[in-house]
Amino acid sequence: MPRPPARSATNAPRLSLRPPQGVTRVDDPRLLDGDHREGEHYERLALDRQELAGITLQECVLEGVSLDDTDLRGARILECAFEDLFAPVFRAPRSSWRETSLRSTRWGSAELYDSRLDGVHLDGGKLDYVNLRSARLTDVLVSGCIIGELDLTGVRATRLALADCTIGTLTLDGAQLRDADLRTSSFRGIQGIDGLRGVTIDEYQLQLLAPFLAESMGLRIEG
Domain 31-214 has what CATH class? Predict the structure, then answer.
């Protein structure tokens, strides 16, 4: 009898996301910094350059909303569902995200440093630069995304998976990754190769990483 395929020793992100139910559509939310909004549905709205620092969105749905240069410092995003978010500049440092899905996101630069993401699925979309420096990630899945630069400098992550993504530069200086799975994703360059310690990759990725590994070890390869 053929042997069953070997199971990966890497634990996958634990996600149990459910779309918010019974939400109320709000066409003119008049959001303010520090607000707590719950069970609301915002669709095709421009919230550009608004001051929304410290806002809490709980069990809310945002579809086709523009958040260009909107101040979301310290925002709390809880059990929400976002789709087609647009922001050439997305500013949400020191924010908290829990049990939230984001689909078809289009961000130029995303400032998410010092943030905390727990149970988050970023699915599809195009992002030029994602700054997650010193963030804490638990049970995070990024799938089907095109990302110009993903900066994970100083990140502490548990059960992080990058699936079917195309990433230009992955920066891992000082990163501490546990149960991180990069299989099926591609990278043109990696900085901070030591941050890959303990990460799961496939054989093809190992071949692509060989020059970076050799450089980090000071090896000279001559034919």
Answer: mainly beta
